[in-house]
Amino acid sequence: MAPRILAIGSEKGGVGKTTTAVTLAHALALQNHRVLLIDLDSQGNCAVALGVRAEKTTYDALVLQEPLARCVVQARRNLDLLASNHRMANVKNFMVAEGHNSHLILRNTLGDQNGRYEWVIIDCAPSLDIANLNALMYAQQVLIPIAVDYLAMVGAQQYMETVAEAKRAGADVAVTAIVPTFYDARVRRSEEVLGILQENFGPVVTEPIPINTRLAEAPNAHKTIWEYAPRSTGAQAYIKLVGRILND
Question: How far is Cα 70 from Cα 196, in angstroms, rounded to an integer?
Fold first, then answer.
């Protein structure tokens, strides 16, 4: 059975993208789904957040064509990580050099994994580049984290246009969730921006993820929120998001 492939992308950094990717990936693994988390960001924050060290990365899998099984590291039970690092720039250069098939390298290399994984979660870099286009060509679903500020609409609309471009290039992908992050119900701005997002994007807008100290602290402890503070408000918000994704 082919896995469900979910790309998590945003044009802006600092919106909780990696936190969302790691949190969702581990949540699915804890529910006994076999999960592959792919990091396409040169900062390599997925490995840092999970407290693992990877000798091989996306570079080895995509450029050197090493078998995926040799490139992933087991981050948690049921959760494998294909990590990233500074060599991601070389991966992008390699993709560009491939010419007319440059946007299909990720899909052609990883394929459907012959049933090895039930879920593939892709943590995209906060940019519009060939690596992120590869992610959209490979994925079936896109989740967009959006910090609740007045530039949120711009970022969401720009990424929606990027997804539309990928669909014109042949991608079979859809935006299934826009996730408002860093929400503070005490602040009028948060309420206003959330309302604008709901008005403009409708039912794909999920319940917001609140500002939560525990969510910020967990990566520094090299733990997911499920290990660090499973009863926190941040964890409770992500439980709802996981349920929504499983029911999509």
Answer: 46
Quote the tokens at residue 116.
């090895």
Strand duo 79-82 + 4-8: pairing: unpaired
Backbone angles phi, psi at 139, to 5 degrees: -80, 160
30-70 pLDDT, tens digit each:
999 999 999 999 999 999 999 999 999 999 999 999 999 99
Read off the pLDDT of residues 13-31 as tens digits, 9 standing for 90 and up.
Answer: 889 999 999 999 999 999 9
List the structure tokens of 165: 């471009």
DSSP for the chain, please give it. -PPEEEEE--SSSSSSHHHHHHHHHHHHHHTT--EEEEE--TT-HHHHHHT---SS-HIIIIIS---HHHH-EEEETTEEEE---TTHHHHHHHHHHTGGGGGGHHHHHHTTGGGS-SEEEEE--SS-SHHHHHHHHH-SEEEEEEESSTTHHHHHHHHHHHHHHHHHTT---EEEEEEEESB-TTSHHHHHHHHHHHHHHGGGB-PPPBP-HHHHHGGGGT--HHHH-TTSHHHHHHHHHHHHHHH-
Half-sphere exposure of residue 99, counting CA atoms within 13 Å on the CB side?
A: 0
Q: Checking DSSP bridges between strand 79-82 and strand 73-76, what pairing results, if any?
A: antiparallel
User: What are residue 122's DSSP bridge partners?
Assistant: 7, 38
pTM of the model: 0.95
- In the chain, what are the domains? 4-242 (3.40.50.300)
- Give the C-alpha separation, 62 to 91, whole Å: 7
